[in-house]
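Batch manifest, entry 17 of 40.
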Amino acid sequence: EHAMLHRLIVGLMNENRHVIRCLPNSIAQQFDATHHSAGLSEELYFDMPCSFIERSSRRREAVQQMASHNVETMVAFGSDAEQLVLDVKKQLDIPVCIELTSLTQASRIRKSQSINAWLAPTHSILREAASRVSEENVFYTPIGTQKIAIRHHDPSNVRCIVVLDASRNPQQTETLLKQVKHLENFHLFLELSNKHNKRIRQTIKSQRMEQCVTCLGNASELRSLIPSADALVLPNPEMPLRSIVLEAMSAGVPVVCAPNDAYDMLIDDETALFVTEQYETALLRVLNDKQISQLIVNNAHTLIEESYGSSKQVAAFDTLLSLF
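Output type: structure tokens
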């Protein structure tokens, strides 16, 4: 997601927008002096997330920084950033824009919240948000991805299957593991990132799948697997919108997923295969049926290129910021 936001910032700066990034202190500690000197936009660093005890002092610092930089609009990506900008808004009358990344999040917003604009990256999220608040306060700002050519991929003897968001909905992942354990010559790479990790690992052990499953917690490791992946599996029907899915679709990786209404770009039998019963059946189709696999790959690549390019995202944000 950092790469997507970087492209957005560069695009807005090309439109003569002055952009300041507010980043977690933890990220600042990972950068060296070369990064800071080479940065295109100005950067401010705060504790994100922040404990309740420290929020007052962080708010004072943030208010001072926003006022001294004459900030005209604040846009928050993620819950930690949302908390920061809302704390600042308690003292400074600066318009606040919040990005929505799932239907669940959109269903919880209220008119009483002091938000000037809700940002919807898909039309499904836009409709859900508009049903909760005034339509004038919801804006379509499509998620953007860079142009990626369809890779020339020759399947190896062992099929590589990447599974995103595997631990947020453990029941679905357990179902996936049990249904695919009889597949031959495959290896699963699971993204594990929360408290259900232990439960998933126990399932892997009980199904005797240790030799064909690798658990990863680093998104950059997952991204590095995309060029060689034979399929991308999304078992969580409520997974928030993520740019890595669009990148995989653009690169020509067929998607097998539980139906997720927030992902407008995932269309059953056109840009993805939906799983309502058996993951094994759907995976065998994309792995062994070249006709259906190529159809999904071509459709997905075209859709992402035409509707979710970085230029469309930049144009939408430029129009939005012109309103404040």
